[in-house]
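Quick question, first post here. What does this chain look like in 3D?
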Amino acid sequence: QLRLVDSGGRLVQPGGSLSLSCTASGYTLNSYTIGWFRQVPGKDRDGFSCISRSGLATNYADSVKGRFTISRDNVKKTVYLQMNSLKPDDTAVYYCAAALPIATMRCLDREIYLHWGQGTQVTVSS
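> Answer (accepted):
Ran it through. Tokens below.
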């Protein structure tokens, strides 16, 4: 069974940067497409970034394009999310998730994901 652990969330000022990590155990990470999602109270969990098994293909929602960068190190079994130019609207609980391989044009779809991290809180506020 694949287990994912999200980490790195904290309070950060608007305009600041933050890096999140998603570390896998229990199974090889390079069998999976990995996505990042976020959720605020009362709203759906939305996908905003994802990366193919090899790391060569990525996809981003318009809301984060140009500000966030997803990457992965399959040897370390870790996927990273570098977030720059953070805004108060980025405040949410952030989750990573793993799906069986799928075209990156579809990998923001929450329904395809099988395994989820526990979530890490990101708060953007002055």
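The CA atoms of residues 39 and 45 lie 4 Å apart.
The chain has a mean pLDDT of 96.
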